[in-house]
Design goal:
46% helix; three-stranded mixed sheet; homotetramer; transit peptide (chains A, B, C, D); Rossmann fold; 3-hydroxyisobutyrate dehydrogenase (chains A, B, C, D); NAD (chains A, B, C, D); NADP binding (chains A, B, C, D)
Chain lengths: 330, 330, 330, 330
């Protein structure tokens, strides 16, 4: 019956006109059949584990064989490359570092699309350029498969505890199928629109996050130098129009809040170089769409300068430290 | 008895060493004696009205006689200049456009300090450079009077409804006395620390507000151009780490929220030129304290460019409109 | 004999290991044999004319047939597409608006590489991403051809008078062959290094040019508002360390210099949208190489904002006008 | 006769209406009578020496007595404070670190204006806010004296060799008198206009200089990372529209030029903190005149960040080093 639903669904699917219905029925939804997983890094590994916890047989691969061991011990089947994953699973999740990796994993010589089954559901949770997501979706469609972008917000901790937020772009009719799997790994699964809008939402959020974090750091630093107590200043901002997530939930000033990286010498959290990467994506999409983003652009440059000055692996809230006067500096 | 308390308080008052206790008793606190008010503009006028509503006899002045008429009809006594106000009231509130006006009203030829009574409480609610507040406090102290800075957040609407927030700087022992009056005009009265910290808190909040507003506008514009629905994008940001007051309470995109200036062609609200003024103060204090504020500084420049391009009197959320492509532009 | 020289040259050519020497001799250098030209727009048209003036038979194409008429009347042979050009000429120059056009003209279904002869010299004078230049060079090498990037500085006037500057990247052994043709169209032909460095030099120059122009405009505007006479200020800058091409050769303030766009309501010259495009390329290469370019990035954003506000087709020195206060603005 | 000329000159002096002609004749111009000098720091000391070399008897003072020793040995008379200088000399030059020092030296309890003679010529070579220059001029005028601002460009080396450039603001009729003295210390003495325009010219030049230097550093760094040889890139820029003083005269990349601080680990030259100070002045004047200076403002912030990160005393061309990737950084 799922097959019927899926088949009928394609009748309205604007971008799926080449799909051969005879093959659609091969993708099983209701039962917990195998799910493929490509990319078992810091994020992918706990995500795949959560699929196993929810009872899904997982068939996985990674370019680094050692990354696969832990999952193998938990019962996952490990294969040599993405094409073999696609040969055995008709629902596949990919979690990769950047656009070139995604292009290779989907369209490379041993890529998913080499052996993808018609009707397969391909979900990419990497954070990449939305233009690449659109390219992958078009390539998948030619093979009769469906591609969705579903980048996450939340770090390794949220990946482990299954509390990620997924922002999903792609054919709306596929959203229920995608949500079934993503719900095993995340607390929120939000449908954003056509392919690429998941990436767009992720990129937009992180650009505003970076602006808010640098802005909060500048503001707290200025206030402290003007004689304000940091906790009091944070309290005032948080009851006023200066309030933002960086001021009330992840304050960058050591001692203002408990349990955030600023209280732990900016270790853990979301690294400066990862933020710089996301801001680079935001900049690229802004340039391509001729959209002025003056503060987003300057935020990108500031995180880039921080990477050049040794802050690459510190949490992105360390911009407070970067802007403060060094001890001994004039 | 209030006099006793006030006298004993001075024993610990670091900056009040020249006060002649014999004169302290002349300022009455418990009873509703006359309160002076200087500056009856868009903000000062409704503030003074609220004092009258709360039963305080008001003695007021303004450089524009016509600004005084309404208050006079409500029973206020109108005098010629600030010195005459100081001659008749030992608690005075000032609400003026900028630093030079404050300097003139306090230290000019017909200024408050020409006739101020010893022990008087002088509260300045103008938004000015904290360095000027400190200068006024020092000048007041020489005359045996107490100066506090108490700038407000909230616009004309909040002034009319008595819902302003006051951020107060000055001797902590005076805060209770100041709060008695300020509570008639505001919903929140927050003690911030030594003289100038009220201004510092106000300036810091508005700098972060400007950064958040421009950041939100850039982000919403970018997301829309990438194919996201504006309401959906706002919803995603507001449940994520991009959340800020400008995204969840005062969204700059027409149609996303009700009852904000973006829904009314950016009329009303907080004018771009007023924001530019506050950002100029933030820039000055940052320069004077050698504090880097890269985003705050760029925000200042953007609002300055907007003023040059005809946005001076539009609400500051019109930066969304400024960044969007003009119809017909390439 | 030229063929011999060319053949021997390849013995040291690091990146030309697949070339079949038997075919190298087919490219003629000393005699004025046919030269192909793809892209007959505002720049390409006068450039191709200069080749004809220097006695080269030209075989050309453009996506817009009407662009070819003038050249045809001058004796050029017009063909249908780039592949046909490559079928008939072993030296080809391309002059196209942007990276996607270049990719299509070289690697598309009717692209040059479909019919390119081994040993052909392909010179691209478009201003594009250096990474695309490298891709084209690699694709050309696979076909036994040599690709060089040779973007120009100088506008339509310099193209007409043969006074362009070419910045050339590619195998050094080919530079003499490239210079033979480029010298017909330009006054300076500069060898920059490996493939892509011509683009890099062009992009770097224009980024610094944009920074200098905006900086000069801000500075002149500030000086004027501080009471300085604009001509005097320009003179002082030009004898001091503030001197730059924008201050001493192309001053953006109307009335300071003769014969520049600022004296002609910013008509002619180098359009704001073209500068915005080049700054977008600079931003992309900076992002890809993780290079901080804070002023270059802000310059990009300012030209982007100007495009959004109706300045797209005005000369890029109109940033002086953009930053000045509008008449009637506050 | 000089006195006659000076007296008649005042008949057209718009801002000199309070001058008592009877006293004007007391200032001697043609003969080498005593010249006062206040501020014997790194710049003031060699400047005063050059006056002595030119045969002027110098009477000097400095807040640090040890700064006066060298000059005393050369025959200068050392007195206790600026008032005493003014008591004995009717031509005085001041060279001080910042606005507050200037205010104190002129209007403080032992300031010049306490004992200034009518008709005295007071020349301030400090780099300060032009608004302060105007205030000093107004204060001097009340005492019947003439104040001119004459900030310098050129560093300690130029001060020692008498090769400074002076930018002079003030009554045009006084310029000849000022030039007589300034020519002993500088190679160029430029009249800029009314009081404050000397400062304006200096501030404008240095703002554009800072923009050019950071822009050159970004550009050179980007080009190098794109594979260009730094010397070749500098050569290309210098023959193109990217040319500026920082690229052709003071290149910030080690090895590109001889005899500049970049070749000496950025020692000597013009310190980053001094540039940050001048940019702070530019920012203040821009804020006060409501002039948008986006690049100037960001340049200020970058130099401010550099000061916070340990670059305060390095030459301002070290921004190239600041923007480059640290060894070992990602």
């Amino acid at each position: 019956m799922a097959a019927v639903l899926r088949g009928s669904r394609y009748l309205v699917g604007r971008c799926c006109r080449n799909v051969d219905f005879a093959f659609v029925s091969t993708r099983s939804m209701a039962s917990k059949t195998q799910v493929g997983f490509v990319g078992l890094g810091n994020m992918g590994n706990p995500m795949a584990k959560n699929l196993i916890k929810h009872g899904y047989p997982v068939i996985a691969t990674d370019v680094f064989p050692e990354s696969c061991k832990e999952l193998q011990e938990l019962g996952a089947q490990i294969v040599d490359n993405p094409a073999e994953v696609a040969d055995k699973a008709d629902r596949i999740i990919t979690m990769l570092p950047s656009s070139p990796n995604v292009i290779d994993v989907y369209t490379g010589p041993n890529g998913i699309l080499k052996k993808v089954k018609k009707g397969s559901l391909l979900i990419d949770s990497s954070t990449i350029d939305p233009a690449v997501s659109k390219d992958m979706a078009a390539a998948a469609e030619k093979m009769g498969a469906v591609f969705m972008d579903a980048p996450v917000s939340g770090g390794v901790g949220a990946a482990s505890s299954g509390k990620l937020t997924f922002m999903v772009g792609g054919a709306e009719e596929e959203f229920t199928a995608a949500k079934e799997l993503l719900s095993c790994m995340g607390a929120n699964v939000v449908y954003c629109g056509q392919v690429g809008t998941g990436q767009a939402a992720k990129i937009c959020n992180n650009m505003l996050l970076a602006i808010g974090m640098i802005g909060t750091s500048e503001t707290m630093n200025l206030g402290i130098r003007l004689g304000l107590d940091p906790k009091l200043l944070a309290k005032i901002l948080n009851m006023s129009s200066g309030r933002c997530w960086s001021s009330d939930t992840y304050n960058p000033v050591p001692g203002v809040m408990e349990g955030v990286p600023s209280g732990n010498n900016y270790q853990g959290g979301f690294g400066t170089q990862l933020m710089a990467k996301d801001l680079g994506l935001a900049q690229n999409t802004a340039t391509n769409t001729k959209t002025p983003v003056p503060l987003g652009s300057l935020a990108h440059q500031i995180y880039r300068m921080m990477c050049a000055r040794g802050y690459a692996t510190k949490d992105f809230s360390s911009v407070f430290q970067f802007l403060r006067e060094e001890e001994g500096a004039q």
